[in-house]
Amino acid sequence: MKKLQELLSPLDIIKIIGSDDKNITALTSDSRKVEDGTLFVAVPGVSVDGHRFIPMAEEKGAVAVVCQELPSELSTHVTYIVVPSSALALGYLASQWFDNPSRKLKLVGVTGTNGKTTTATLIYEMARLLGHKAGLLSTVCNYVDEKAYPTDHTTPDPYTLNEMLHLMVEAGCEYAAMEVSSHAADQQRIAGLHFVGGVFTNLTRDHLDYHKTFEAYLAAKKKFFDMLPAEAFALTNADDKVGEVMLQNTRAHRYTYSLRSDADFRGRIVESRLDGTLLSLNGNEVELLFTGKFNAYNLTAVYGACVLIGWQKEDVLREMSRLVPVAGRFQAFHSPKGYTAIVDYAHTPDAVVNVLNAIREVIGKDGEIITVVGAGGNRDKGKRPIMAREAAARSERLILTSDNPRFEEPEDILHDMEEGLDEEARKRTLHITDRRQAIRTAATLAGKGSVILIAGKGHEDYQEIKGVKHHFDDREVIMEIIADEK
């Protein structure tokens, strides 16, 4: 239970109608969860405006309502708090509700198109390897120290986010790492959180179904750095074309990392293999269980973030060699037939390019790559032909298949992808809608020394079809195929 006055203290309030001397027993922006004593926050959503549900919330026992616009009829039993932004207010209210847990942790946020999961997860893993209790909020799974919590979103809603951070504090965690999605920044889900640092990985085309333009997507990412406090650090990829733009208006201390030029944290690939990389970090060579230039960027960012958090360089370098790849990120499976299958979450054109380039760097120009890839339904259609074109340009064989079609027909998605292929590429491309069969076909075609890339789903263990999630795991499928080959 909290006093309404206490909860409202950090808000920018236009006006209050009614008493603010009330006991609040629950906080929610979901009218279905309202009970007696609830503070209901009416947030304008992407598809539904929460203001429509104010009367329902009042009927179910809400004693206070935070809103941007007052309802046409006011209840004498309800206190109305009018604010400029309900979404912004919800973030601060959720932080207040859980006693500002982010201020009791050293919280690092990671944003960008690709590499967020790996970078955030490895910062969390480094904290634990160095003997600290830590938490993680990521696309794959949330962790409170060792305990795992399933996740549905890259960045949860403000209430869930602060609830998880509160659990971390209760468990004695000192540090936390989290992915910060563009949706979360745009929708103010991270409002009210206190970060000790932020990391930018890269920016390429993604989520244009939501943001509409690349400029709006960039602005959403940049918003995270704009909100960092002056005492925080902001670490950016100096090799990305918008790396410096991200930090233009930040108050935080600015730092850079790079594989190509002078930077505060300089990485250099000494040797690369399918099972690892010898990486030089500020002149110190470290053997790592990761492959590819994109991972070299991720690990250089991790090194920089760990040093900026305050851990000793020597300790960080020593423990980095013990880090292991994140599930579904360049995860390798070796067949007795002599081929290697790589399962990776790459679901944007740039991510597909990065993974295929990493494979090519290792196997050389004469090696064979067979790529199995699709594209998600009800998402940015413009990237579909680009993904197919980039995959075909870097593979000897291409198999287009279903991903998560959602409410679209899989065949329509594959036809959109095929639009990116020229006549020569089409001759090297198979169109197999059934994903299991597509992977089996790739395994049949692969010879000794071949590499199969199974892209797009990575850690996901489902296919979403017509609103229903059916169990499907690329890793399980390829392991079954390899088991049958023995």
UniProtKB/TrEMBL annotation:
ATP binds at residues 112-118. It catalyses: UDP-N-acetyl-alpha-D-muramoyl-L-alanyl-D-glutamate + meso-2,6-diaminopimelate + ATP = UDP-N-acetyl-alpha-D-muramoyl-L-alanyl-gamma-D-glutamyl-meso-2,6-diaminopimelate + ADP + phosphate + H(+). Its EC number is 6.3.2.13. Its cofactor is Mg(2+). Residues 110-305 form the Mur ligase central domain. Residues 24-96 form the Mur ligase N-terminal catalytic domain. The keyword Cytoplasm applies. Carboxylation is probably crucial for Mg(2+) binding and, consequently, for the gamma-phosphate positioning of ATP. Pathway: Cell wall biogenesis; peptidoglycan biosynthesis. One of its GO terms (molecular function) is magnesium ion binding. A motif (Meso-diaminopimelate recognition motif) lies at residues 403-406. Meso-2,6-diaminopimelate binds at residues 379, 403-406, 456, 460. Residues 328-458 form the Mur ligase C-terminal domain. It is found in: Cytoplasm. The modification N6-carboxylysine is found at residue 221. One of its GO terms (biological process) is cell division. GO terms for cellular component: cytoplasm. Keywords: ATP-binding, Cell cycle, Cell division, Cell shape, Cell wall biogenesis/degradation, Cytoplasm, Ligase, Magnesium, Nucleotide-binding, Peptidoglycan synthesis. InterPro entries: Mur-like_cat_sf, Mur_ligase_C, Mur_ligase_C_dom_sf, Mur_ligase_cen, Mur_ligase_N, MurE/MurF_N, UDP-N-AcMur-Glu-dNH2Pim_ligase. HAMAP family: MurE. This is UDP-N-acetylmuramoyl-L-alanyl-D-glutamate--2,6-diaminopimelate ligase. It comes from Duncaniella dubosii.
